[in-house]
Amino acid sequence: ADFFKTLAEKSDGGTLRGDYSLADENYVVAQNWQHYTEAQHELWRKLYRRQAQLLPGRACDVFIDSLERLDAADAIPHFDRTTEALQKATGWQLVAVPGLVPDLTFFEHLANRRFPVTVWLREPHEFDYIVEPDVFHDFFGHVPLLFNPVFADHLQQYGKGGLKALKTDGLKYLARLYWYTVEFGLIESPQGLRVYGAGILSSGGEIEHCLTNPTPRRIPFDVERVMRTLYKIDSYQETYFVIRDLEQLFNETAPDFTPIYESLKAQEALPANTLLAGEMNLPPNG
Ligand code: HBI
Ligand code: FE
């Protein structure tokens, strides 16, 4: 199907891991929780334990508090049970998907407060790095913040913006926004920089690197600057964008982006390691 061609191009021409044969028109599948093996639950526990002990002093408080309430340490979670609690908290639900889904589908789910969670779990040899999102990245990395009303509202708005962007070819700009916030975003706290991006929170190595390594740039969030900045998908980020609080993320992504897209089309995209003259490069955590 053309969808595979699109995503295959997206994931450097390789094939996708998931089984899409039973997916419905929204790419939703049954989670089939009973199919997970004891070995997979054990791998989940190992991944969870390693990541959870990295969170204190690095993940933002909202993430840590919400993750604890999910009680997801002992086995791969039942998405339906999480949906029951999530629906009450912010009106979101989880939908099981075979893996990456087309942008249009992805945006439609987000615009309707449905978060797609991949059903398969990585192999033991992929403990430290995986190319496509698996259930650990999607659930551990993304689901806790969906319990925060401000973030939940932002993500639905992002989905609606995505549907509009598909019509005004603003997709690459929105993909950069998603990348530098939802996936790799940093946030300020009274104790210093903290992480809210799922790609970092579900990664063993980047969670320390992004906060204390002197090499990457750490730039105050500015939506147009983010949308101009290219990103890399197979290495630690060279630049991180820092928000003051989740309200800033919601407020600065509320307006219609069409005028920004017009202005961006006239400007060169910036390499990921750019620091413009006069731009603030926030210090790493001491
Ligand atoms: N599909 N399942 C899934 N998860 C994602 O995070 C995802 C996706 N499809 C497209 C996509 N992300 C990105 O292109 C977004 O920037 C749209
Ligand atoms: Fe993700």
TrEMBL record:
GO terms, biological process: L-phenylalanine catabolic process
Q: Name one GO molecular function term.
A: iron ion binding
Q: Which cofactor does it need?
A: Fe(2+)
User: What keywords appear on the UniProt entry?
Assistant: Iron, Metal-binding, Monooxygenase, Oxidoreductase, Phenylalanine catabolism
Part of which pathway?
Amino-acid degradation; L-phenylalanine degradation; acetoacetate and fumarate from L-phenylalanine: step 1/6
Q: Which domain of life is it from?
A: Bacteria
Metal-binding recorded as keyword: yes
Q: Which SUPFAM superfamilies match?
A: Aromatic aminoacid monoxygenases, catalytic and oligomerization domains
Name the enzyme's class.
Answer: oxidoreductase
Pfam families, alphabetized? Biopterin_H
Report if keyword Metal-binding is assigned.
Answer: yes
Q: Which family does it belong to?
A: Belongs to the biopterin-dependent aromatic amino acid hydroxylase family.
Q: Which PANTHER family match?
A: AROMATIC AMINO ACID HYDROXYLASE, PHENYLALANINE-4-HYDROXYLASE
The protein's name in its UniProt record: Phenylalanine-4-hydroxylase
Its ancestry begins with: Bacteria, Pseudomonadati, Pseudomonadota, Betaproteobacteria, Burkholderiales
